[in-house]
What we know:
The chain is mainly alpha-helical.
Amino acid sequence: MIVDKSLQRITLFLVALAAFLIPFMGSSLSLALPVIQKEFLVNIIILGWIPTVFVLANAAFALPFGRLADIYGRRKIFTYGVAIYTIASFLAALANSGQILIFFSFIQGLGCAMIFATMVALLSSVFPLDQRGEALGLYVSAVFIGLFLGPLLGGLLIQNLGWRSIFLFNIPLGVILLVIIFWKFKMEWAESRGEHFDIRGTGLYSLSLMAILYGFTTFHDNFGILIFIIGVIGIIGFILMERNTKNPLLPFNIFKNRVSVFTALSMLLLNISISAIAIILSLYFQALKGFNPEITALILASQPLMVALISPIVGRVIDKKDYSSLPILGLILIILGLGMLIFLDMNSPLYLPILSLVMVGLGQALFSSPITRTFMGSVESKIYGVASSLFSTVIYLGQTLSLTILLIIFNIYLGQMEISPNSYLMFLDGTQILFIIYTLISGFALSFTLMVRRQR
């Protein structure tokens, strides 16, 4: 690979800024929901659909957009994604009802899917394998800076300028991205150019995956279970159909490589085990400990802050040395951090959850960049778009499954009860079971990571 330092710097800046923007928006939006509910007077179901449709669109369409990027150009799809995301943010800020906001949140999700389908693919296209670790480390750091600043800066924007300000915040950054793309970012990568795009497979895959994700989030009722089953049947049909397709949406030879399979499974299980931590601890701090939202946000920020600080260092290390032990060490720290939370109760000292969050954040930093580098290094460059988007989809699936487990356990222990002094013990019992489950799942992630090391 011919190395163009200027192109590398521009690509890294564009990807890092986009990687910051989207998690910042997601973490800010969660704070804005109560304010949106008061203004539009919507019920909790409509309110819940605002972030839900964003996630559904992102997860269901990332893979098709990744395939389109490989055929028609990764820069092109990334550019369309930034433009759609920016325009949808502006229109969402003008929304005058919950339903309109849901629609533009879905369009935002489509733009986000284009961006996330191409970010790692662009970095992998520009940076050779011996320089890719540092780039991926900075990319991961940007994602978690967004998650770190979302509750803090987003909270200030909402408090002083209203909920619409978090959507308007996206616009100047989106414009900056587009100006740099058209001014400095001219090169294109389309190593599957000329191949057929599978429209039938895309339709079946996207609808089935949305059904599965929706079914996950409503698994506690019969309708949710039915939708989930329909989605699973659809995915099985998609797999059978794609096996006989000349240019499939998802090249199944990816799954013939055990390194690709084991890295994807370890990333899936990691996200299942850690994605619900912030929700559980937020409820614990505010409902049981009586902390205000600002203090709670500062405590919870310790996890993404650790990832943001350590990931660039990890990235530089993995370009120079054998890094196979880093993701293993990271998962051991995560297992220990989750294990500590099993013993959380009313009288636990504050340092216990903070230390746990720091350990989990450090573990994530040691795990994420190396495992992403390993996965992208195990596939052909012509399908970097598909591989990048598949990895993003795996992360979203893990996050959704994590929340599904949370909903099921809390439904068992709390049912329709609100968290109050009368239900504190039931909440803590449910929390203990959740952290036992998440700790065990992270143990399975460790086993797959050990298999990756043996395969390499």
